[in-house]
Amino acid sequence: MNWLKELFTNQESVAHIVLLYSLVISLGVYLGKIKIGGISLGVTFILFVGILAGHFGLTGPISTLTILQDFGLILFVFMIGMQVGPGFFETFGKGGLKLNMLACLTILLNIGVMFACYYIFFDTSDQKNLPMMVGTMYGAVTNTPGLGAAKEAVLNVFADKQNFDIASGYACAYPLGVVGIIGATLAIRFICKVDMDKENEQLSEAEAENPNAKPHTMYLRIENSIISGRTLEEIINFINRDVVCTRLMHEGVISLPSNDTVLSLGDEISVVCAEADAEAISAFIGPQIEVDWHEEKQPQQMISRRIIVTNSSMSGKTLSKLHFRSVYGVNVTRISRQGIELFASNNHHFQVGDRIMVVGFEENVQRVAELMGNSEKRLYAPNIATIFIGIVVGILFGSLPVAIPGMPVPLKLGLAGGPLIIAIFLGRFGHHVKLVTYTTTSANMMLREIGLALFLASVGIKAGAGFWETVAEGDGLKYVLTGFLITIIPILIVGTIARMKYKFNYFTIMGAVAGAYTDPPALAYANSVCNTEAPALGYSTVYPLSMFLRILAAQLIILFCCGV
Question: Can you say whether residue 38 is alpha, beta or left, with left for phi > 0 and alpha for psi between -120 and 50 degrees?
Fold first, then answer.
């Protein structure tokens, strides 16, 4: 049995390292699925299993653990950047500006409460306490990428004091952080006297209103000689307006025209367009006429279908400009991007890879599918080169030193901030440099979860040796208490302001809070009590900026406050 003992004890063995990580990650994933009060810790439980393994001496060479930790962090934040990149800059539009400003206020209050607790409860002469409080703050806001950025900054500033294990503070604050986010949003409901049924009713009424131009159907006789002999697609492109030709009468025969159908003088066509465009379209094509052949149309069945955007010409176009309801006679009920369900708002900008749920008559839904591409095969090919090119550029960008007077070390975005920023720009503008940046939701989630699992397992294993002394015999209870305060106080303040001053719907506030804290369990709870997609809209509006600021803030706090 010596071989088995050596497998678990020989830290230099590759088999030992692989076995250790596999055990920690698999156990962490399964234990993270256990729900208490309907809430689970999810993949973050890997951290606690890693701490337990490290406590009992199951570890590996520090250099190996660090390499896996840093590579996991890079992969994790890069895939997050690729996910949020396409919609990052759109969140600053008119509709999302207030929510993003409130999210920024939340982040500032998190930092403010952290410093207040630091000066009230801890010995400021001890160098390790502020880094530990930073770890506590990121556990309180359930933001793992921020923890990674903070750990990297700590090593840069305290190169000779690498025993500052901020993961212990993170682990102490995280469980109550998950519970506190949901609890604080519920407290806002009672503070502001919110009627849940009334909020749901208001959202339903708002969605029922027609957000697009009023539809107009008319029948035209082609009398413009310029049109004769040209295809329907050429004519529509020339008109440069949203218009759909649903029927064609040519020499007494009724047909369903396609883009390649050639039109002739005297043909009669059925056209659907926005009411505001009707006069201009009629002036170009020919006069409106009364017909009876449309009555022969057979009744159609209403269907719903998920359509994938694969037509690159659709990138950047907004939902309102496409006039799906008025021109195509269909409704877009929801949009999914990289696994995030988005509210189908008028200002949504489409990107390749978006999946939209369309409801309408089968014929009309098919027209929308042709317009958007809907060719899933185009999305199957993995774009590995783009990912690793982006990581290379991200590491170079994150390593650029920026000298700031008074700081002992130059400011760097590091292995977390650099790849994140480059990934955001690639996700949004990569097509301009001929890089295919689309990654399927499953591929993005897989790479992201692998990176996160490697990072959490590494952090836990490295922290395990001194965790018990830090928590049980040190300031563990203080970290728990201060973490809880960091979690709830900003939510109570910002949530009340959002409701009382800006009159946001309560469910939008719930989603925005979850996005500001980058906390999926809180979003899942909000979705469970809301009848619409308002929480997802709030979440997706503030999530990109919040994730970016939390990662950047982690490094700035350590470098500016601990590096002096």
Answer: left
Using a 10 angstrom Cβ sphere, with 0-12 exposed, 13-18 middle and 19 or more buried, the burial of residue 253 is exposed
**Among 409, 301, 289, 439, which residue's Cα sits nearest to residue 359?**
301
Q: Residue 43 above 70 pLDDT? A: yes
Give the HSE-up count for residue 551: Cα atoms under 13 Å, Cβ half-sphere.
Answer: 27
**Phi and psi angles of residue 218, each rounded to the nearest 5 degrees, phi first:** -150, 165
Distance CA 500, CA 525 (A): 23
C-alpha–C-alpha distance, residues 515 and 490, integer Å:
14
* Consecutive H or E run containing 393: helix 384-398
CB within 8 A of 82, min separation 6: which ones? Answer: 338, 387, 390, 423, 426, 427, 437, 439, 444
Model confidence pLDDT, tens digit, residues 274-308: 777 888 889 899 999 888 765 444 445 667 788 98
- Supply the DSSP string of 525-553, one letter for each residue: HHHHH-SSSHHHHHHHHHHHHHHHHHHHH
Q: How far is CA 86 from CA 165, 226, 233, 353, 429, in A?
A: 35, 40, 29, 10, 8
Q: What is the pLDDT of residues 303-333, one digit of tens each?
A: 778 898 888 777 767 777 787 866 777 777 6
CA dihedral 536, 541, 542, 543 (to 10 degrees): 60
pTM over 0.90: no
Q: Which of 242, 245, 215 is nearest to 227 (CA)?
A: 245
Could you tell me which residues come within 8 angstroms of residue 546 by beta carbon, excluding any fewer than 6 positions away?
103, 106, 107, 515, 516, 517, 518
Helix (H) or strand (E) holding 246: strand 243-250
Instruction: Give residue for tokens 């596999």.
Output: 22
Bridge pairing between strands 355-361 and 215-221 = unpaired
DSSP annotation of 209 reads S
Question: Is residue 107 a contact partner of residue 550, using CB atoms and an 8 Å limit?
Answer: yes
- How far the first Cα of the chain sits from its last, in Å, is 54
Packing angle between helix 441-470 and helix 14-31, nearest 10 degrees?
100
CB 353 within 8 A of CB 338: yes
